[in-house]
Each structure stands twice: as structure tokens, then as C-alpha cells.
Design brief:
- By secondary structure, the chain is mainly β.
- Helices cover 0% and strands 61% of the residues.
- The protein is built from no helices and 7 strands.
- A 5-stranded mixed β-sheet has the order 1-7-6-3-4, with no helix packed on it. A two-stranded antiparallel sheet has the order 2-5.
């Protein structure tokens, strides 16, 4: 998923509140959104350096991981 300055994350299929973590390609955590019940999450990636990142969405039971690229 290429990203310019903003990501829109649609969260569905989770029973509980979710945590959203952002990791760079080296595995370093670059951002964290703690326990939200929002079904749509907006995240600016304007401050992220260009490169490949991983997005982890978890409710403690289920985890979804997606790769995205910041140009």
C-alpha cells in the first residue's frame, strides 16, 4: 500500500478495542495508537522517513499485519 502523507485504516472484524503499532523495516517501533474502539483510524505519516513500514492492528486475540510504503 503506497502512502503519501496520511493513512486511513479501516478496522473491522475485531471484538475488542484495538492497538495500532507502526514499525519501520528494521523492526523499530515508530508510532503507537493505544486502545481505540474507532472503526476508522486516521494516521499522518508525513513525519515518517521514506521507506517500507509494517502496520500491526491487534485486540489481544487477533492480529493483522500489513506492509506499506512511504514515498
Amino acid at each position: 500500500i503506497p502512502a503519501s502523507s496520511d493513512l486511513t485504516i479501516e478496522v473491522s472484524g475485531f471484538e475488542n478495542q484495538v492497538s495500532v503499532l507502526f514499525y519501520d523495516i528494521t523492526g523499530r517501533e515508530v508510532n503507537f495508537i493505544n486502545q481505540t474502539s474507532d472503526k476508522t483510524i486516521y494516521q499522518s505519516v508525513a513525519s515518517f522517513n521514506p521507506g517500507i513500514y509494517w502496520l500491526h492492528v491487534s485486540d489481544g486475540i487477533k492480529t493483522v499485519r500489513k506492509k506499506f510504503i512511504v514515498n
